[in-house]
Amino acid sequence: MGIANNVAIIGVGSTRFGELFEQSYSDLVVDATYEALADARVDLKEIEAAWLGTAFGYTYHPDANAGTSLAEPLNLYPRPVTRVSNYCATGIDAVRNAAFAIAAREYDLVLVVGAEKMRDVSPRDSLVGQYANYGPPVRSKGRTGPGQYALLATRYFEQYGNAKEAMAMVAVKNHYHGTLNPKAHFQREITIEQVLNAPMVAYPIGLFDCCPTTDGAAAVVLAHKDIARSFTDDYVLIKGIGLSVAQDYFHAFFRQDNDFLGLAASREAARIAYRQAGIQDPRHEIDVIELHDCFTITELITYEDLGLCEPGGATRLIAEGHTRLNGDLPVNTSGGLKACGHPIGATGARMIVEITQQLRGRADRRQVQGAEIGLVHNVGGPGAVAGVVVLGR
Amino acid sequence: MGIANNVAIIGVGSTRFGELFEQSYSDLVVDATYEALADARVDLKEIEAAWLGTAFGYTYHPDANAGTSLAEPLNLYPRPVTRVSNYCATGIDAVRNAAFAIAAREYDLVLVVGAEKMRDVSPRDSLVGQYANYGPPVRSKGRTGPGQYALLATRYFEQYGNAKEAMAMVAVKNHYHGTLNPKAHFQREITIEQVLNAPMVAYPIGLFDCCPTTDGAAAVVLAHKDIARSFTDDYVLIKGIGLSVAQDYFHAFFRQDNDFLGLAASREAARIAYRQAGIQDPRHEIDVIELHDCFTITELITYEDLGLCEPGGATRLIAEGHTRLNGDLPVNTSGGLKACGHPIGATGARMIVEITQQLRGRADRRQVQGAEIGLVHNVGGPGAVAGVVVLGR
Asked: Is the pTM higher than 0.90?
């Protein structure tokens, strides 16, 4: 019982990620869905229910609030569609809720779509604009992503020494991976010097330490494992899935157990997913990872939160090339959020697409040879909501 | 397998519904939750996961977007909390997703909270303000709730004759029920004449045909039926639950099968729930109903959509008193949306609270004697997303 080993991913699809001014939110949803359906060799009519992961629809379209935003462009009527919204972990949580319904045998075949349309909105109405202007000056004003992760980075530097160059290595690695991904927002290499010399956004986070603002959608077709084989032999199983809502990093001042060197939600979500999947040594049992590199420092601290190295060991992991495509534990082979961008609700689903393709041996120039176990990680809120999924054959 | 007969409601709670300027969103969440926990005799620490139903948080608080909005006031860390948003069916859909997780045996004991804080917001920033001002003039401008349901009402009048007085009877009935509910927003009786002579909002919908704008929260504790008895003998089972996303009533011009006399989503959601619960004759098998009377016409057409009478028979059902508290099929004994108000995400959960108490014989002055099977119905979007739950012992 439960999700673990009972739910199969039988098809995946995604749009190109980027500034897609020529495509509407609905266009993105349709394109991602039909690619996933074709991959699964499933007709839309066979889909019994769907989940839509969209976090911030209200910033660009007052109707992107509900299951209707998926049902309408797909003409999915009258099937049930739930909208899930959980900050940057929205994509994984949409998959999680869909997987509950499959594991409960309420449905055998469902669709999950993550989508967000973030570019064609004025700065004033944008997510960043809203957060930058909201709240009292001391506690919240200016509470933008870079501003918050800058605090985490300086704390990390204080404990382990300056990691600005290691952060730059993350950006260089993920941009390189992006050159191998025709759907990435950024597809050109950058150098360490470019990252280090880029304009500062919030010290020590410079322009090239930040993921861009991007449009995109990704889709996943889930089936109960007992019927997966009737569609395809080339499916992937959800071996474990964990979600955790922890106290916001930046407000968790009163917790004795908060070392401020990582995100409690990531650690707890990984603990749940590892337990379900029977992972005891993630560093050696996992073959390929997509994790939430919204900023380069986030990739480093997430290495530690996921137990891929000892505390403070992240800078060595990146510097020695372990997490590069030809390393022994490739991370963000898609290019990550850094090169793909981060359409909030789409990101978790896009990561699951990438890892599914890796485990099927279909990742083209980004293929990690012999990958059998993969991991997907989202964190947002910031630091408050995290999801971790372990996938395998 | 599946939800039906596997998921028990072991505790319920709700705040007073009304203009709660003295309470924050978080206050409402806490009050509803602790009432439900006390009712279930469950300690918050025992709760394994939670779902939050909030539809329009962005109109009053940019942080009411995610599971954090429930985790923070309850200090529920690090447990997983999903936020579900599905227009006016948000409350039922949050319960539905939580029930999937229970039925899948991922968790045995979970919390669902529906909450919305709608009063302390300027008209410009309110939901009504946003919809009234959004979109191109012909298709969408002025697409407010009353404006849209007025179209449905005039279509109904065209087919079956003027039902303005029957609509008024719905308002009078639900206001009367509200006088018996100490948590209702409106607790005073009104007369047919008052309803008929009230200022017109959008013909034929007058002021007293509309539910008010209200703050409130409601909470439900769900357990797998196999462990329910370890907490209480006084639990209620989910016998069936259906969700449907149908084409928006007001845009479904091209569907041959749309008679514009009801809402396809309600009909489909009821069909699913009845099938799961084994209901063949809803008029005689169901003992008490909470349904979505956002406007008085909505209660009338929902009688027909739920199969409680033949098409066109709704006016007779209300006029003959069948749906009044002392009738043979009491509807909206709580006072409904008309007297309780409609904090969007809270409404479905509040209805489940009412029906649970009816089936336990704990509805005080509103008690329907011998009630064994109850029904809850939400519809919104408008007319696009509907949920129906059948509850029993």
From this structure: yes
